[in-house]
Amino acid sequence: MKYIIENERKIPVVREVDVLVLGGGPAGIGAAVAAAREGAVTMLAEQTGDVGGIATTGLMSHWTGKTEGGLYEEILSRSAELTGEGRQIINPERLKTIFLRMLTEAGVYLRLYSFASDVIMNDHVIQGVVLESKSGREAVLAKIVIDATGDGDIAAKAGAPYFKGRESDGLMQPATIMFKVAGVDEERAVFPGGFEETFSLPDGDLQELGKKHLPGPAGHVLLYRTTIPGIVTCNMTNCTGVDGTNVEDLTKATLVCREQMDDIVAFLKRYVPGFENCYIISSASLMGIRETRHFKGEETITEQDILEARVFDNWVVTKANFNFDVHNLTGNGLDETGCQKHFPQINGYTIPYGCFVPLKIDNLYLAGRNISGTHMAHSNYRVMPICVNMGQAVGIAASICAASKVVPRFLEVKKVQNRLMELGVRP
Question: Which of 235, 195, 165, 194 is nearest to 378 (CA)?
Fold first, then answer.
């Protein structure tokens, strides 16, 4: 491989803040809003032109999984267009605006179109990051940095230890581009919401038809109502063998998933009632990456902790609830290790503080799917409602550390718990 040597150059420091949050997805928004509301001078840097991540730019259909209390409840209350079960259906355009309002109302300094490309370190202590944008290469210094990038790009650059994917072989869950179709007769349509949900149609079992007629590795049928009549969100493109931290893999996944879309629409028209006249009206501009880096933290949450509905003494996220949503790592549908419909644990679990504090690097927090957990545990806690409340907890913790000049790994967790309980969160 050839290399070039960069010339030494001065990078302007454009801002110094208490808390710098990287990544504007649900976890990052939760962290930035919480930190700013606690009085910390807070900046959120997001590489795209919108906030919300998979919830908005990724065209996610609904808030899957659940939790109780915290910022997640506020987001639902402010953004929901429907009531009851429909309250969890996402209108991405409305949600973008709600997120922006929450950030600006809290006083967060917002930097869109800004990619966090490098770290500013003093030995093992992170002191800020370098942002790349139309404005050039700029530095932001911070007392505390929160990596909510999903893949943990900055935590990795800082030297925090991690592993990728499944412990046994490194395989990661497949990638997806969500898209929407219009022209659906919802009175006649069917809406399979999980891999284990199917319908008996004139031509046979719906999921079996998908496996037979859709281009591999696509093959499952997942269809979700939207807030707009006649428009349905499709979670059906599929690309396996993708490392979301590799740009060539991301490019491959985009090509593979987009090539599947026309075949998926043709399948829906041919086999699924109510979809005879459907057509694509929009698709996500952000690839749906489910799994990449799992960082090693002061503590690690496991699948057994979730199955036991464990309440940790040092909890900071509570009443998290979902299943083992492991998409097939080598094909379509649910992986053999996954469990959705028959998931045995219906009570919520907690996530301990140590999962958000990476080993070796100080003044750095993790938030979102990159926290310290096993591959199987990750398949449960990676969903957006849980990630929002992860962000809230970490944002509060970061504000306390910044104000008191305490290193995150030595923070008294009771202070975070007390503040969360004042805000209505219960273990």
Answer: 165
The C-alpha atoms of residue 158 and residue 118 are separated, in whole angstroms, by: 8
Is the full-model pTM beyond 0.85?
Answer: yes
Cα separation, 268 vs 392, in Å, equals 40
DSSP track, 59-123 = ---B--SB--SHHHHHHHHHH-SS-GGGGGB--HHHHHHHHHHHHHHHT-EEE-S-EEEEEEEET
Structure tokens, 326: 């492991």
Neighbours of 280 (CB within 10 A): 15
Count of residues for the chain?
A: 427
All residues at 6 or more sequence positions from 216 whose CB lies less than 8 Å from its CB, including other chains:
331, 332
Q: Are strands 42-45 and 364-366 parallel, antiparallel or unpaired?
A: unpaired
d(CA 295, CA 245): 14
Task: Answer whether 148's CB lies under 8 Å from 155's CB.
Answer: no
Work out the pLDDT band at 84, boundaries 50, 70, 90: confident
pLDDT at residue 85 above 90? no
Nearest to 57 by CA among 66, 49, 65: 49
Average pLDDT on 70-80 reads 95
Q: How far is CA 258 from CA 62, 233, 238, in A?
A: 21, 15, 10
| Among 204, 239, 197, CA closest to 221 | 197
User: Is 416 within 8 Å of 389 (Cβ atoms)?
Assistant: no
pLDDT exceeds 90 at position 119: yes
Nearest to 179 by CA among 290, 59, 73, 274: 59
Query: Do residues 238 and 217 lie in contact, with contact meaning Cβ atoms separated by under 8 Å?
Result: yes
The upper half-sphere exposure of residue 325, i.e. CA atoms within 13 Å in the direction of its Cβ, equals: 17
- Residues 116, 40: Cα–Cα separation, whole Å: 21
